[in-house]
Design a protein that fits this description.
The protein is built from 9 helices and 13 strands. It is of the alpha+beta class and 377 residues long. It has 3 domains: 1-116, Helix Hairpins (Orthogonal Bundle); 122-164 and 200-258, HSP40/DNAj peptide-binding domain; 261-340, Sandwich (HSP40/DNAj peptide-binding domain), CATH 2.60.260. Bound molecules: zinc ion (2 copies). One zinc ion binds at residues 167, 169-170, 174, 190, 192-193, 197.
């Protein structure tokens, strides 16, 4: 199960509601919780995967990023199997109410596995830009719900604001070894400190011992000109606060670029289709279209332009990242056949038909019918 889909892991489909996901997660986590299968590495692996899947799918932003980019959305810059902080981060708050009641009897306390004692969780944010914004680059202010170290206790969770003393049961390791029936020994989470390695005697009244406080931060992001769709930007240290003064996580911003009314983009080139009147195509002329930079672009239509022909306009595409150079604009011309002709217009076209007859003014048509003739001979 090296790389299973998160939805498959939880046994829900892609349209599942937040409640469905939560329910499926609890059910799946109950089935393979390592405390129920001591020593069973398969169950432990499965439990990790389920946690990883739930960590992503329970969060709207992360879920949207996953739907769009898959696991690639969370790769890089983070150690461990759990993409949001590494190690056994486990959704303690979601699981504790289920498991503490089951395990408290023989575990002597909450059995939510050892908590992540190091780095804060990474956050993700989905930012949608217009093509114009991607062209020019821009500054965006985004609001993220995150945590920072509690002001009152400096992140230690203690009433005196100093680091809590080392746990006497496990001497700070957060784990204890237990033997059951002689030689069978297994390691479990320290029941005294619940894996934290330190015991807070008097909890900080402001954060109730968590050491963190919830905040909504405004983060200014500078989007460089030429940014591409599906780019991931990292804002180092803007994720959740680390536990007890450890390093903060990072914020990952996933950029998507909205569809544009006129232009399609492929890397630094832009593509568009412009209708050309039949007369303009036949006689030649000029048409104007608005460029992505807001300037007018004049396109020369040569006499005898065919429908579907392409004009390349150099330097009118998107900018290359960190460069003043720009890609090109490709305009496909589509000759439009006139409709709703007035009587006079029809007469003129009839005259034109009589005049042009079988001459060389429509080479493609002529060639086509000549080929057909050959086929029948
Ligand atoms: Zn301990
Ligand atoms: Zn506090």
């Amino acid at each position: 199960m090296a790389d299973e889909d998160y939805y498959t892991l939880l046994g829900v489909d892609k349209s599942a509601s937040a409640d469905d996901i939560k329910r499926a997660f609890r059910k799946a986590a109950m089935e393979c919780h390592p405390d129920l299968h001591p020593g069973d590495t398969d169950a432990e692996q499965k439990f990790k995967k389920i946690n990883e899947a739930y960590e992503v799918l329970k969060d709207d932003q992360k879920r949207a990023a996953y739907d769009r980019y898959g696991k690639a959305a969370f790769e890089g810059g983070m150690g461990g199997g759990n993409p949001f902080g590494g190690g056994f981060g486990f959704n303690a708050e979601d699981l504790s109410d289920v498991f503490s009641s089951i395990f408290s009897d023989f575990m002597g306390g909450g059995a939510t596995s050892s908590k992540n004692r190091t780095r804060g969780s990474d956050l993700s944010y989905h930012l949608s830009l217009t093509l114009e914004e991607a062209f020019k680059g821009c500054e965006k202010e985004i609001q993220v719900k995150t945590t920072e170290p509690c002001e009152a206790c400096h992140g230690f969770g203690t009433s005196d604001g100093k680091e809590a003393p080392v746990c006497e049961t496990c001497h700070g390791s957060g784990k204890v070894r237990r033997s059951q029936g002689g030689f069978l020994v297994f390691e479990t989470v320290c029941p005294t400190c619940h894996g934290e390695g330190r015991v807070i005697k008097d909890k900080c009244s402001k954060c109730h011992g968590t050491g963190t406080q919830k905040v909504e931060k405004t983060i200014k992001v500078t989007i460089p000109a030429g940014i591409e769709d599906a780019t991931r930007m990292r804002v180092t240290g803007a994720g959740e606060a680390g536990i007890r003064g450890a390093q903060s996580g990072d914020l990952y911003i996933f950029i998507s670029i909205k569809d544009h009314a006129l232009y399609q983009r492929n890397e630094s080139n832009l593509y568009t289709m412009v209708p050309v009147s039949m007369t303009c195509a036949a006689l030649g002329g000029k048409i104007e279209i608005p460029g992505i930079d807001g300037q007018k672009i004049e396109i020369d239509i040569k006499e005898g332009t065919q429908s579907g022909s392409e004009v390349r306009i150099k330097g009118q595409g998107m900018p290359f990242l960190k460069s003043t150079r720009r890609g090109d604009l490709y305009v496909t011309l589509r000759v439009e056949t006139p409709t709703h002709l007035s009587k006079k217009e029809k007469e003129l076209l009839e005259q034109f038909r009589e005049l042009s007859g079988d001459d060389d003014c429509q080479p493609e048509t002529k060639g086509f019918f000549e080929k057909i003739k050959e086929l029948f001979e």
